[in-house]
Amino acid sequence: MNSFLISLSPVKNTVITEDNYNIEIHKFFNRMFPEINLNDFRVSSFFGYFFENNFLLSEEKNYKIMITIKKTEYFSSIIQKLFRKALNKEIFFIGKNEFKIKGIISNDKIWTGYYNLEEIIENNQEELRSNFRVKIVTPIIDTNEGKFIFGFDKIFHKIIEEFSEYCDEDFSWIINQKERIFIVKKEKYYTKDVKIRGLNKTSYLGEIEIEIVEKQYKNLIYAILMLAKFNGIGDFSNYGFGQVIIKN
C-alpha cells in the first residue's frame, strides 16, 4: 500500500454544498484510474473540511487530499498519470466543480508512505517503542450496527477483522489475549456531528494510548495498527471514514 497527497486548486472560487464530498472525489479518481478496482484505493476529503457540508474553496489557494493505493503494482503508473495531468495543466471535474492538480506530495511524515508487512515484522524490535498512540481522525462506522463504533475494544475488533482478511489468516486469538499482550493506558473521546446519506449522526473522535507488555508481540501489534492507518477501519473507509494516525 502507498499513500500520497495531491494538492488541488479550483479553477474559480467554488462553494461546496454536497454532503460527503469525499464520495464525489472517489468517483472522480475511479474514472481517472479505470485499471484498478473500486475497492483498491481510498481517498480523503479536503484536509480540514471532512465535517463540513457547506464551505468555500478559493481560487488562489491549494487544497490537499490523501490517496492510498492498496495494490502496490498500480502505484507507479498512477503517479505517472497524475504527473502528466499536472504538467499539462489539465482541468477536470469533481462533481460539478473544476480543478487542476498543483502538486503531488510523497514526503509528509504523517500522511504519506508505504505499508510492507514483512518489513515491519522483520524490523529490529529496539527501533520500535512499546507505547503507541492511536488517534481517531474520522469516525469508524459499521453499517450493520447502524451506529458509530465506540471504545477501543470494538475498534480493535474491527482492526483485527481487517488484518486477518489482509493476511488471509485468523488473528482473532489476539483479541482473547490482548490483556496479556498490551494494556490500554488512556482513552479520550469527543463528539462531532456528521451527515451520512442525508442523515445527521453523532460521531466520535479521540485518542487511545496503549503499552505493549509482551515485547515479542511489539512488531506484530505495530503492523496491525499501521495497516489500519493505510487501509482505514470499518465501512466507508474508501471515502475517508475510519482514518487513524499511529504515533510511537
Commentary on this structure:
- There is one protein chain.
- This protein is of the alpha+beta class and 248 residues long.
- 28% of the residues lie in helices and 33% in strands.
- It has helices at 21-32, 75-87, 117-122, 152-167, 173-181, 218-231; strands at residues 2-10, 14-16, 41-43, 55-57, 63-69, 92-94, 97-105, 113-114, 131-136, 141-142, 147-148, 182-196, 199-212, 244-247.
- The strands form four sheets. Strands 1, 3, 5, 6, 7 and 8 form a six-stranded antiparallel β-sheet that branches. Strands 12-13-9-14 form a four-stranded antiparallel β-sheet. A two-stranded antiparallel ribbon has the order 2-4.
- Helix 4 packs across helix 6 (218-231).
- It is globular and about 55 Å long.
- The mean pLDDT is 90.
CATH class of the largest domain: Alpha Beta
Q: How many distinct helices?
A: 6
Q: What would the CATH topology of the largest domain be?
A: Alpha-Beta Plaits
User: What is Rg?
Assistant: 19 Å
* Gross CATH architecture of the largest domain: 2-Layer Sandwich
Structural class: alpha+beta
Work out the helicity level.
25-40%
Overall shape: globular
- Provide the low-confidence segments as ranges: none
Report the end-to-end length measured between terminal Cα atoms. Answer: 20 Å
Binned strand content: 25-35%
